[in-house]
Design a protein that fits this description.
- This protein has 11 helices and 12 strands.
- With 289 residues, it is α/β, with parallel strands linked by helices.
- The structure holds sulfopyruvate and magnesium ion.
- Magnesium ion (MG) binds next to helix 3.
Length: 289
């Protein structure tokens, strides 16, 4: 676990951008672990995994509102960690009660998780990508800063990181509010800032980055380009981002493919028609040696 925890910090120091992909089970973890592509004689792979509250909930048929508790999520991620070596970033939602945080951090560190991301929202959790954010409330920044401090004092490993996720843009609060929070969270000890957005373009997160880069409290920035998916990593790098998280793509790939196969079998009353679109039995039985 110690080696894996430190690996993310080492990657942050060594790479222009750290590329993270969502993993919701061991098989998806293995894709991230093993996949390499070559383009123009250069080889590319993913640097690590994102344990997403959204896909962890959906795979269990539950909404992304903390119906799936931390124990269940940690037992799932331990299965992923059993068969992989790359670092994992944990989506901690809002962290729950401050009094419970040190136990969460202990469990994550014991498993070898490299970082937790906490979002500055309060009350019943609702996924940030929903259009309607009515009833969603943002925490008082100083109250949220106490959670950051709590994690800093609870962690055993100096390399376990806490990233603060700012939801100001999601809730329509704007740039000034986001920047004020970034200063407070950075001073509280956050190792990085996830500036979240559900716009179609990265304009608002780039305007945030431009201003925050000038601050003496600047810390590395994290982007989650789920809605602004046209953005290239090179543009994120240019704007000061150090981590990109592709937060839900393996689940979004798997679900329509599985539903399509099920539909084909139902329509044809046999499985022959789907054979060419799916892995052969031979491929599947040899997938894990
Ligand atoms: C998740 O993947 O669970 C996230 C990112 O928190 S988002 O779905 O954009 O809220
Ligand atoms: Mg989440």
């Amino acid at each position: 676990p110690e080696n894996r925890i430190s690996r993310l910090k080492r990657l942050l120091n060594a790479k222009k951008i750290v590329r993270i992909l969502e993993s919701h089970n061991s098989l998806t973890g293995l894709i991230i672990e093993n996949l390499k592509v070559t383009k123009n004689n250069l080889s590319y792979d993913f640097d690590g995994m994102w344990s997403s509250s959204l896909t962890d909930s959906l795979t269990r048929g539950k909404p992304d509102n903390q119906s799936v508790d931390y124990s269940t999520r940690i037992s799932g991620l331990n299965e992923i960690l059993d068969v992989t070596t790359k670092p994992l970033i944990f989506d901690g939602d809002n962290g729950g009660q401050i009094e419970h945080l040190s136990f969460l951090v202990r469990s994550l560190e014991r498993s070898g998780v490299s970082a937790i991301i906490l979002e500055d929202k309060i009350g019943l959790k609702k996924n940030s990508l929903f259009k309607n954010q009515k009833g969603t409330k943002q925490s008082n920044p100083n109250t949220f800063a106490k959670k950051i401090k709590k994690i800093c004092t609870s962690r055993q490993s100096k390399d376990f990181m806490i990233f603060a996720r700012i939801e100001s843009f999601i809730l329509g609060k704007g740039l000034t509010d986001a920047l004020k929070r970034a200063e407070i969270y950075s001073k509280a000890g956050a190792d990085g800032i996830l500036i979240h957005s559900k716009e179609k373009t990265p304009n608002e997160i780039f305007s945030f980055a431009k201003k925050f880069k000038k601050s003496k409290n600047f810390i590395p920035l994290i982007a989650v380009p789920s809605t602004y998916s046209k953005v290239y990593e090179k543009d994120l790098i240019k704007n000061g981002f150090k981590i990109v998280i592709y937060a839900n793509h393996l689940l979004r790939a798997a679900y329509p493919a599985m539903e399509y196969a099920a539909k084909k079998i139902l329509l044809n009353k046999r499985s022959y028609e789907i054979e060419k679109k799916i892995s052969s039995v031979n491929e599947v039985i040899n997938l894990i040696k």
